[in-house]
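Give me C-alpha cells for this 498-residue protein.
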Amino acid sequence: MMLQVPAQVCQFMECKFRLNNQLLSDYMTTSPKQFKVENVPVSGFSEINAATISDTIGKSAKYAARTNPGAVVNSYGSEELLQVLAKANGPNDILELCITQVPNDDREIYTKAMFGFELLHEKASTFDNHIHYVSRCILKKASLSECTSVRQKSQTEVIVAGRIECDADARLNSKSVVLQGTWEESLSQAVAVDIDNLKYSLFPGQVVVMRGLNPRGDKFVAQEVYCDASQAIPDQKRDMMNTLKGNLSIVMAAGPYTTSENLAYEPLKDLITYISTQKPHVVILTGPFIDCDHTNVKDNVMTETFKSLFDKLIDTLGELYTTSPFTKIYIVSNCKDVFHLNIYPTPPYPSSKRKHPNIHFLPDPCTLNLSGVVVGITGIDVLMHISQEEISQGVGGDKLARLANHLLMQQTYYPLWPPPPGLCLDAALWSAHAQMPCTPHILVLPSNFRYFIKEINGCVVVNPERLSKGQGGGTFAKAVVSNDTASPKNIAAQIIRI
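Here you go.
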C-alpha cells in the first residue's frame, strides 16, 4: 500500500529546496574572502601548495631581504675536516651505510603510544627505579660506599642518594631544596637539604648523591654533591661488519620550516635546494612541521587538512630521491605539530599516502646508529626548560655546556621533573624510551638558545637552532665524521644560515 503525500507538503519541500539553492549561490558569489593558494615555486621540485583563505599571496618580504644566506656562522673541528665538509658529495663519496634505531633495554622500538592510563603506584615505582639505577651509577663512578636513609640521624658523615625536588609549588631556590630517597633505603621519604656551603648546579628531577651530616634527622647538611652518572662513548669499530668506510656527512635542521606570516615554506624549499646540491649521506629533520602556535593555524585560515599539507611536504622531500638517491632522510616527530599527538616521548609521524624509499620516520627522542657512529636526537627544547628551573652557585663556566652536560650525566634526554606547563610527559613512556643507551658521539639538541657546537666530555653537542625565526630565516647544521675512531677530533661541524 502506497502512502499519499499531500500536495501542500510537496509544494513546501520544493520551495525550501529552491531557497537553499539560492542561499548557497548567493554565498558563493558574495563571500568577502576567496579561497586562494599560497604558491611559491622552487626550481626542480613540486610546489608546496598550502591552501588558505588569504587576501595576499606571495613571498615573505623580510625573509627575501635576509642578509648573508649560506654564510657559515660557527665552526668546529680541524681545518682538514672542515675543508671536506665544505665540499659537495660526488659519485666517489657514496657509502654503504648500516643505519639502525637503537632500541631500549627491552629491545623495543617506540612505534605507537599507549598513554592516559597511568596509575599512581606504577608512576611512583617508575621514578623509584630510576633514582635507584642512576644513583648506583653515580656511586660507582665516584668510588663511594653504600648510602643510608635520607632521614637517618647521624653525627658523622654519611652518604645519601635521591632526587632533587622543591618543597613548595613554586620555582626551586636554595632554601626549598628537598631530597627524596628511594623506597629500599628511605621508604621514599624526603628531607630538607642545607646547601649554603656547597658548590652546586641543581634542578628538579635531578638524581644526586650527597655527602654530609644529618644531626636531627629532619635536615641534611650537604658538604659535597655528586651527580655524574655519564656512560662511556661506544667504540665506533666494535662491530667490524658495520664499520664506517669513508667520510660521513650529515645535515641537521629543526622546525618551524616556514615563516610566521605565511605557509609558503620558503626556508624548507631553500634547504631542499641545498640538500640536492650538497648530496649529504644523512639528513635529520626535527619538527614541528606545522606548528600549533603558527598564526595561520591558530586563525583557522587553512582550507585543507593539516595531514594533507604534511603529506605535500613529505612528497616534496621525497622528490630528492631523483637528484640525490643516496641521501637518507630521517624525520623526527614533535609534540608541537598540530596534526600529531601532544605527548612526550612522541611516537613517529604516520606514513604519508605515497611511500618514499629515502624517507624514514622516527620518534622523539631517538638514538641512531650510523655504521657505528651514534647520534642522539630530541626535538624538545630541553635546554631552555632546564635553564628556567636550574639553580647554581660557584660553578661558573659555560652555561650552555653545563645544561647539555646534565643530559649526559643523568643518562636521559629529558631529566627535568615535573615538566613545564604545556608539555604532556608520560612517565611510563619516558622510562622506556627517553633514556640514553650510551653517550652518543653526536647529540642534536635544537633550542631557542643561540646556535652552538660544543665538545662535552667526548660528545659533540649541536644546537642548529631553528630553520625559521619569526618572519626571517634561521640556521641549520652540517657535520662530517671521518672513518677513523669517532672521537671529537674526527668530527667537524658548521652552523649555516639558510
